[in-house]
Amino acid sequence: MGLFDFLKTKTNTAQTAKNRLQIIIAQERSSRGAPDYLPLLRRELLEVIRKYVNVDADAVKVDVIKDGQHDMLDISVALPDGQG
Q1: Distance, CA of 48 to CA of 64 (rounded, Å)
Q2: In the chain, where are the structural domains located?
Q3: Three-state DSSP class for 55?
């Protein structure tokens, strides 16, 4: 065990924090171009789906995908086991 081993741990922690920050920034940048109605659409879809199936709030994902010149909605719902 070297005298300066404690510095290596801080470097790894700093690098981890930097990587996490880069991920957060990338997510923020990608969501800037998303339409304003997506959170409301997701919430309303969740309400409708919950009328028929008991799902978690995180079960519904709504994204916009660019397909050439067209924007497409990508909607996925994770159903609980035994209900699909």
Answers
A1: 20
A2: 1-32, 36-84
A3: coil
In whole angstroms, what is the distance from residue 58 CA to residue 46 CA?
9
pTM of structure: 0.52
Residue 37 CA: distances (Å) to CA of 19, 32, 58, 62: 30, 12, 17, 10
CA 52 vs CA 36, 55, 65, 81: distances in Å: 27, 9, 27, 14
CATH code linked to domain 36-84? 3.30.1070
Which tokens hold the place of 20?
């996490």
What is the spatial distance between Cα 59 and Cα 52, in angstroms, rounded to a whole number?
14
Give 2-52 pLDDT, tens digit per residue: 666 655 555 577 778 887 887 777 766 666 666 778 788 888 999 999 999
